[in-house]
Design a protein that fits this description.
Blueprint (H helix, E strand, L loop, with lengths): L10 H24 L6 H8 L3 H7 L3 H21 L6 H11 L3 H13 L3 H25 L9 H19 L5 H19 L7 H16 L1
């Protein structure tokens, strides 16, 4: 009797995955540097070091390519949130602000703006932004050791994320690091007053504790 096994992944599949990864990274870079209008399939293919035909093999249309790039940006942002090394509240605030002032946020912002005028992008980008927003808020609560059962804490955390997004928008024009550092320091003080003084905890540790609590509650 023949034993049926799953397909083996060989060098060809590895090369295909590597090509796709290069295209996604190139798409994000193009968006961050040139915006939607300056980001074409040809430009992305050239940056990725592949032919336009190879790019269109993976992503038949421009919308396919940049929709996949949206998903890639979201996954990268989520992974960055999960691996933040912050150990005290000021470090946590600074790390959250950095997420909104780096190239991933810049690329995502260009996509959000394009989605307002491109029907092919609008629905998926809207859903994705909502999901990323929920994940950002959840991770901020964990990193800040915030107790959202206390009235006003949820709004305080959301205010921090809104502030960080605003700093990210400002960075598109000028990179005033000194001002940003002062804002981060002041927000850290305000958060200590609103949330209670104490140390934030790293995301891996917090996620483990949260998962354990969820399992306990489910029993």
């Amino acid at each position: 009797m023949a034993v049926v096994t799953g397909p083996r992944q060989g060098p060809q599949q590895d090369r295909s995955r590597a090509t796709r990864q290069r295209l996604l990274e190139a798409a994000v870079s193009c968006l961050a540097e040139h915006g939607w209008a300056g980001s074409t399939v040809a430009a992305v293919a050239e940056r990725a070091g592949v032919s336009r035909g190879a790019a269109q093999h993976h992503f038949p249309t421009r919308e396919d390519l940049f929709t996949a790039a949206v998903e890639y940006v979201a996954e990268e942002r989520s992974q960055a949130l999960r691996t933040l090394p912050a150990r005290d509240r000021r470090e946590a605030v600074a790390a959250l602000v950095d997420l909104f002032t780096g190239p991933l946020f810049r690329a995502a912002l260009h996509l959000w703006v394009a989605a307002a005028h491109e029907p092919q992008l609008h629905a998926r980008v809207t859903e994705l932004e909502a999901r990323v927003g929920r994940e950002s808020h959840r991770m901020a609560v964990i990193l800040l050791a915030a107790d959202e059962s206390v009235p006003g804490v949820r709004e305080t955390v959301q205010g921090l994320l809104d502030m960080a997004r605003g700093l990210g928008l400002a960075t598109l024009l000028t990179d005033d690091r000194a001002r940003r550092e002062r804002v981060v320091a002041q927000w850290s003080v305000l958060l200590d007053e609103a949330l209670g003084s104490g140390e934030a905890i790293g995301s891996d540790e917090a996620l483990g504790a949260q998962d354990a609590g969820t399992e306990s509650a489910a029993r």
